[in-house]
Design a protein that fits this description.
By secondary structure, this protein is mainly beta. It is built from 2 helices and 14 strands, in the order βαββββββββββββαβ. The strands form 2 sheets. Strands 3-1-8-9-14 form a 5-stranded antiparallel sheet, with no helix packed on it. A 5-stranded mixed beta barrel has the order 4-5-11-10-7. Strand 8 and strand 9 form a beta hairpin.
Length: 203
């Protein structure tokens, strides 16, 4: 289960990456000031690309769906056997982490794409009920692990190949685009840290 990922993608990289796919992204002016983030945790605000008004739109939403106040955030959802006919989104990332071991501190492993500087997870839009009311939110979709992930976890977040971004956003059959990672598509390295952030206790 992915509960920690990073996004070091610049505004220019978004524009160039999506333009190369002939899938321009709409940004509300002015252009966002996107600080590199090595770690994004549940309940934090993060970039998302959704389909709105016949175009891809960049927004920043809360990570984790919450059906009722006080409930645990749903940060990952199983993708198997579901159509996801509404609420699809892309969640851009440059890397993500998985943890192994049973004692704290757990071993942390950093996953990056072997042939891409950044990528997009398949995500699902929804709502989070907070003390300030209902706010837009998102969750990541997961699937059975590919061979690169299997030694570290029994699930992995769905990473969409760039040529599938438009198809996912515009409603193509979910089963045709949601797949486990291919062998050799991920590079994994141990990534120890000194201290876990406070909100890890919320997961």
């Amino acid at each position: 289960m992915c509960n920690d990922y990073g996004n070091r993608i610049s505004y220019r990289q978004y524009v160039e990456g999506f333009s190369q796919l002939k899938l321009p992204v709409r940004f509300d002016p002015p252009a966002p000031n996107l600080e590199p983030r090595d770690e994004i945790w549940p309940t934090e605000i993060a970039p998302v690309v959704r389909w709105a008004g016949g175009a891809a739109e960049f927004v920043q939403l809360r990570w984790g769906l919450i059906a009722k106040l006080g409930a645990k955030p749903v940060i990952n959802m199983r993708s198997e056997g579901k159509r996801f006919e509404q609420g699809r989104c892309l969640v851009p990332a440059s890397h993500y982490f998985e943890f192994t071991g049973t004692k704290s501190p757990k071993e942390r492993w950093k996953f990056v794409r072997s042939n891409e500087e950044w990528f997009c997870f398949a995500g699902l839009l929804g709502k989070a009920m907070t003390k300030k009311g209902e706010v837009p939110a998102f969750s990541l979709l997961t699937i059975a692990p590919g061979p690169d992930t299997k030694p570290y976890h029994d699930r992995e977040p769905v990473i969409l190949a760039p040529q599938l971004w438009r198809a996912w956003l515009t409603g193509v059959s979910a089963s045709s685009v949601l797949h486990s990672s291919e062998p050799g598509s991920l590079i994994v390295a141990e990534s120890p840290r000194e201290k876990a952030p406070t909100n890890e206790r919320m997961i």
